[in-house]
Amino acid sequence: MAKTDFIVVFVTASSIEEAEKIGRGLVEEKLVACANIVQQLKSIYFWEGKLCQENEVLMIVKSRGGLFNQLADYVKKNHSYKVPEIIAIPIVDGSPDYISWLNESCKED
Known about the structure:
With about 110 residues, the protein is α+β, with helices and mostly antiparallel strands. It has a domain at about 10-60: Alpha-Beta Plaits (2-Layer Sandwich), CATH 3.30.70. The chain contains 3 helices and 4 strands, in the order βαββαβα. A hairpin with a 2-residue loop joins β2 and β3.
């Protein structure tokens, strides 16, 4: 296994179409190596003082830690939500082949 400076980022979206548009753009810009889209997510949260329950879509994207700000800016500019979820967790370890692929697939930060 190989220690890394890569991250996994979670982004929720209002629809599969929105997630595909954002995910495709992130990959095309080489801000992420991959965008996985998980459908049929139910989110329960408070927004503007009200309890909300919505159907959403979850994107799981893999990127370099140093690209997080550019990635977040891209999502914010292309997202329908006023405050989209954009949170990152570190990839602390991974198979050397996969880490190598991530390295080749993302632009330099």
